[in-house]
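$ fold --in a.seq
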Amino acid sequence: MITELHEKSFRRCLPLLEHVSALEAKAVLQGVNRGRVFVDDSQKPRSGFVWLGNHDGFLFFGDAANEVFLAELQSFLLETIYPNMVELGLQWFEAISSQANWEPVLKNVFNNSPHWQQHVYLNDNFQNTHEQLGGQLSGKYELLQLSNETDNYFSSLLNYSTVKKTIEQSWYSLNDFYAKGIGYCIVFERQVISYCYSSFVSDHYYIINIWTDEKFRRQSLALETAQAFIRSCQEKQGHPYWDCTDSNRASNQLAQKLGLKIQQSYTGYEYKVPTKVMNSTILT
């Protein structure tokens, strides 16, 4: 019977994950980042999935041929997961696994739903000079490291609460992020207009979340925050972990410009919560 694991039991699932893959899931199982875990057997799990704390997807792991788990999966999604999603205002289910044996299973379970290719970039050959990359921050912008030391200033910014909420979707608290993560942002007129921070951390891999306000794009701001992030990552003897969809041309180009290289690719599936579930949940 599929059941939700208590946080204290998450580590029972770690042997089911590969070493440098599904790092977001591993970060949750290690207790570093927020998330929920569902497995076939709470005492001796063979198969399961992690619902990431930032609601960015469901990562499946373990034995993809587990007939008991697969037989219960559809009904569990319908009766438990989908209603939870509707209550949170979510309409789309993203199913992912970096373990190749799950791909045909997910394709079958989610009825040939729309899918995409995801690329994971890793490399220690970071290009770290402005001359090599052509980046130079305009004097009207300020690069700020997100840390305990800068928290007073950070908390005074106009969109502080929005950025804080984004970070805390995957971290238990902002202080927890300061202690274990890495983050930089660019400030203009007391607002964060670009950031690059670690949304998950596992085994010295820092998983990158990067964003720039649409009004300020094409000014190399993402490049600036990413350079600062990766330098800090290297100072900690860590590894930047960059993943993006194949269709996100700008993200792929930036990763390559930074000297990162594709380590692996996998398929993700997108599935809309059934209308009958959405209607029944709203009515109740």
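$ fold --in b.seq
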Amino acid sequence: MRRPDRTPQIIAGTCGSFDELRVAHQRATNVTQSFPYSDPKTGAKTTRKRKLRKDAHTLYSSVCALPITSAEACADPALMNECRAVFSAFVAFEKDRIEAAGGEFALAVIHSDEAQIHVHLFALDRERGSVVDLHPGRAAFEDRRRHLRACGLERSLSRETGDQLYKDAMREWQDELYEAVSRHAGLLRFGPQRERLSRVEYRRRMVAREQNAMDEKRAAEARDIRKAAESLKRVADDLFDLGNEQLGEVAQEREALDIEKARDETTRRENAHQAEANASRARELNAQTQRLRAAREDLVAQKN
């Protein structure tokens, strides 16, 4: 029996392999950061540069897992293709968000060598080095801290406030991810413990969500088919109109050629008639010339 292929599948971004990712990550960690500096003696404000801290976060990573075992996915090609479609949607969602935050999507890798099939996504920030601004929760915290620092109130940001900013931003990210990806895959936003559901009730809700996702997928496919049919009809109508227009142009050109041909035939006939008349006139002139020569010869003979 042939064993299923569990080789990790790479979804390339700016890097096509982990070797390329390591090189790009190393370069990102070598950037220098600019920071405001106030001279303690004069109070003069300047900008200085420094290397990244050794403990700086320089590689962004996120994970998307599905409630499907790797064994099930590897044994069913159709199911594996559905998993890949969900992972591709997740990568597209994260890629757009990361690029909007000033980073770059490096690569993603689908793993089927563990219990549940899942995908790891990696991103870099080659300009700033640190990937803090690519993480939804950390970015919300840092934005608030930068704002307070600019106002001279950085110390007023308490740990509780920072934690709340982090949690709210992560919940918002999860909500957006659910609406963009998970909902269309038939998944629920929350697990059974959140609403104190029994296993039966949760399973019933999962089945309903899966059916809704399937209905939405079929409706989307039907819309795509209808749009394709309408597009084909427009193309056919355009071709029909174009064909009629071209047939009209061909008929007009054919008519013009027939008229030109008739004109040429008339001219040819007229030229032939004129040529015959010229030939007849030439014969008459030749005969007259011969008569005149004979008469001249008779006159010359009579004089002699």
